[in-house]
Amino acid sequence: MNKLLLVSGFLMLTSFGLSSEYGNEFQSFFKGDTLKALAPKEEHPSEAYVITNLLKRLHYKKLELSDSISSVVFDNYFQSLDPNKADFYQSDIRRFQDLRFELDDQIPKGDLDFAYEVFAIYRERVLERIDYIFELLDNEFDFTKDEKYVFDREDAAWPSNEPEKKEIWRKIIKNQALSYKLAGKEWADLSKNLKRRYQRIQKAVYQYNSGDVFQIYMNAYTNAYDPHTDYFSPPAAANFQIEMGLSLEGIGARLMQNLDYTEVAEIIPGGPAYKSKAIQKDDKIIGVAQGDDGEFLDIIGWRLDDVVAKIRGPKGSVVRLQILKASEGINALPETLRLVRDKIKLEDQAASAEMIPISEGNTTYNLGVITIPTFYLNFEDLRAGLEDYRSTTRDVRKLVSDLKNQGMDGLLIDLRYNGGGALQEAIELTGLFIEDGPVVQVRNYDETVDLLKDEDGGEVYYGGPLAVLVNKGSASASEIFSGAIQDYKRGVVIGEGTFGKGTVQNIINLERYIKNPDFNLGQLKMTLAKFYRVSGSSNQKVGIAPDIQFPSLYSADGFGEAGRENALPWDEIDGVSFLPSNMVSEELLDHLNRLYREDLNSDPDLQKLVGDIEKAKKNREINSVSLNLEVRKADQDDNQSENELYASLNEGEVATEDENSQRLKKDPYLKEGLRLLAVMKNFKID
């Protein structure tokens, strides 16, 4: 579930300097200060009532508010505040157990006392913990002891008493201090840096307001329906709109706050972050520096608006980020990324094409690659009646024409990291490769089903060999297009299993239902419909299974929609009649899979990638780390030695290759996809 504006949980490893603007005055200022009691605003009961009715009437998942929903909301709320079970005591949970099955009666009535009473205890527990952390950091840890830090406490119980809680946090802080030691920091510096970090978190606790609490509680409620149904408080709703606009004049990323961390919620196609390919959804940003020489600021514990203010900046200016890759798990070390801020234009998000020659046997094939970052459509120009409005399908049609004029032997559509976009464009793009027919079914909250078809007069604009390259970042409209190409047996889908998002959301302004000019109201983003393939199968949770399955860092249920709590289930509806092209046979797929397995055993770039994936998987499965300095140093040295060995083995080889070969070496999935596409050119069906 989304966890917005929270302060809790264990902190990951960092290793960089801190700004001098955060000093000891925070600790002394807040010491002994009285926390302001928080209570619901006048409008919050009305918002809770309206949210309840909208969920009941319009949400795709027909759930009656009941004791079972109340229990989920109860658990969601405690988990969102303390997901690592390191702040609340077991007695705190027991104190509210009598209300576990009462929230379904309270919320519609606007009774929000539970949320604010729990939050008051939460703040006390966090501040108690921070005081203890300051005490811990007065004396250096013994890093020669053979201790282990178990960082995943999802299945653990909340601490039963104060000594147990202190021991949990002693190891958390020791682990953080050890990460600084591994980066070469001395105790005096690292202790000061960690104290400053927790002074910021302490400050944030004092800055929580009534709207923050209401938003956290409402998200615990709405996420009981599905993970894409969220409540945005007025400031969050405004920031969401600002970020969506201003992200087009920065690095091109929408951010969210998850506990003490700033995480990447979305990469905007065409922006500096997207073009770098070095930062992805769910990565954590832990440090920000201005220009090429600016000092890094440790942003762990900062509020989201403060982080965004540091990352935003004028076009052409440089910002450097320190990130923890989500794919690296707990052993992730900070990586530095240099980005030049830019204003993202439609042209930057548009489809692009190139011709890449691939030799197979004694023949060189000219293969076209069209990369589509998002499914876009200029609605304003379309509504204005302009004939030259931009769209994915229009641009791809032109690119295909240019590639055909250059003697293209086969076409690969690259949809990696394409998170979706305009549904209409997914349908019309499919129409370039098939004759008339249905493309996708949409089942609405009222159980009506809309059948969306390609209706371009039966024209097949490109009828040659076709491959579609996807990965876990391919979602929504990308899954509709690739699923239709697969269902019609028109092309071969290659890559990783896709994200599995088969639902549709709309944003509803609550001011439409509460007519009071004195109220400052939020928004509800709610799931209203679900996509289904022409076969009747949903994309939800399962995504698109490629015909040629490449190795993936992510398990089927560990990343993407299937890994999200309360995600709507996969299901089926009746299929519809359609006429497959049958350009892809079982014989062809068997032949391509056999060739791929041979390449997997012989291609050094694929083998290196598979090795990296297996290593990353093992790292993610690790549930604990040593708190012994020498043991951690040895692990770090082993990882560095492996990377240096691979670099030295390939240094001479890369130097002798042309630019095209060097590029494909860095992208073995594209290289393998093109090789299989070349084979498709001359494959004969018996």
In short:
This protein is α+β, with helices and mostly antiparallel strands. The chain has 22 helices and 19 strands.
Structural summary, described in words:
The structure is a single chain. The longest helix is centred in the C-terminal third of the chain and has 27 residues, at 629-655. The strands form 4 sheets. Strands 3, 4, 5, 6, 7 and 8 form a 6-stranded antiparallel β-sheet that branches. Strands 9-10-11-14-15-18 form a 6-stranded mixed β-sheet, with helices on both faces. Strands 2, 12, 13, 16 and 17 form a 5-stranded antiparallel β-sheet that branches. Residues 1-29, 241-248 and 644-656 have low confidence and may be disordered. The two termini are 51 Å apart. The protein has 22 helices and 19 strands. Helix 6 crosses helix 7 (162-182). The chain folds into 3 domains: 25-226, no CATH class; 234-340, Pdz3 Domain (Roll); 352-606 and 657-681, 2-enoyl-CoA Hydratase, Chain A, domain 1, CATH 3.90.226. The chain is globular, with a radius of gyration of 27 Å. With 686 residues, it is of the alpha+beta class.
Radius of gyration based on Cα positions: 27 Å
CATH uppermost class of the largest domain: Alpha Beta
Task: Count up the helices.
Answer: 22
Total count of domains? 3
Query: Which shape, going by the Cα principal axes?
Result: globular
CATH third-tier fold name of the largest domain: 2-enoyl-CoA Hydratase, Chain A, domain 1
Intertermini distance:
51 Å
The whole-number mean of residue pLDDT values reads: 86
Uncertain regions spanning at least 5 consecutive residues:
1-29, 241-248, 644-656
CATH homolog superfamily of the largest domain? 2-enoyl-CoA Hydratase, Chain A, domain 1
Q: CATH architecture of the largest domain, please?
A: Alpha-Beta Complex
